[in-house]
Amino acid sequence: MESQTLYRVKKEDLPKLEKLLVKCFAHDPLYCKLIPEKETRERLLPELFKCDLTEFIETCEIYSDSEEMNSLLVVSDESEPYNPLTFYLTEAWASLKTDEYLIKEDPSLKTLWNFMRGRDYLNSRWTDQLHQTDRLHVIYLAVDPGHQHHGLAEVLMDEVIQYAQKHKMLISLETHNPNNVPIYEHFGFKTYGIVEKHHFGLKQYCMIREA
Questions:
Q1: CA angle at residue 154 from 140 to 134, to 5 degrees?
Q2: pTM (2 decimals)?
């Protein structure tokens, strides 16, 4: 995905975005389920988001509304060609670093076990059912809590939608917060399905916006 309007995030911007993601997802149902203990979650989230962003800067497009970076959009353009070796090596490195942090911060391995049990909530594997390569997948859409209700989410999502419409692409995303479902429905998304593992007790709302 290309944008002439949004600010394209650079590697040197990542530390600021790590802090933004921590603020936005500190109470997200997924991370509260994966890391139930608040103190452990506060220690782990910065490292987890650091791993995520380090991977995504190489494999996805990361945008913000401006250089101030009060918001964040991470998009994977499934239609773009990629080097499989580079992609899988980057993904494997991020996975190893994540496991390392989980074990270091919680030697009891409870948190690592939670991540293993909840892997289907983390890997967007459900999108395989779409059989669609002309597709954008929104990995993160986040707005600093202090700048919410100022239209920043609309700025980011409108850019995704305009690009998808121009190129006749489907858009997919998932959320674990039921309060977000009406917001995405407002943008024209519909619920494709709900992932709910009985051993995990969490609903993942899988949503699509058709081309």
A1: 55
A2: 0.89
Residue 79: predicted pLDDT: 84
Query: With bands split at pLDDT 50, 70 and 90, how would you rate the model's confidence at 197?
Result: confident
Residues 58, 141: Cα–Cα separation, whole Å: 18
Cα Dmax for the chain:
50
- Tokens 């949503």 -> residue: 207
DSSP for residue 145? G
Of the pLDDT bands very low, low, confident and very high (cuts 50, 70, 90), residue 129 is very high
The rounded distance, in Å, linking the Cα atoms of 52 and 47 is 9
SS (H, E, C) 12-78: HHHHHHHHHHHHHHCCCHHHHHHCCCHHHHHHHHHHHHHHHHHHHHHHCEEEECCCCCCEEEEEEEC
Separation of alpha carbons 164 and 141, rounded Å: 16
What is the sign of the dihedral through the CA atoms of 155, 160, 165 and 167? positive
Please name the residues in contact with 189: beta carbons below 8 A apart, sequence gap of 6 or more: 171, 173, 207, 208, 209
Using CA atoms, how far residue 137 sits from 15, 34, 113, 197, 209, in Å, is 23, 23, 27, 22, 10
66-97 tens-digit pLDDT: 999 999 999 999 887 654 545 554 555 556 67
Give yes or no for a contact between 48 and 98, defined as CB atoms under 8 angstroms apart.
yes
Report the alpha-carbon distance of residue 67 to residue 81 in Å, rounded. Answer: 28
In tens, the pLDDT along 198-211 reads: 778 899 999 999 98
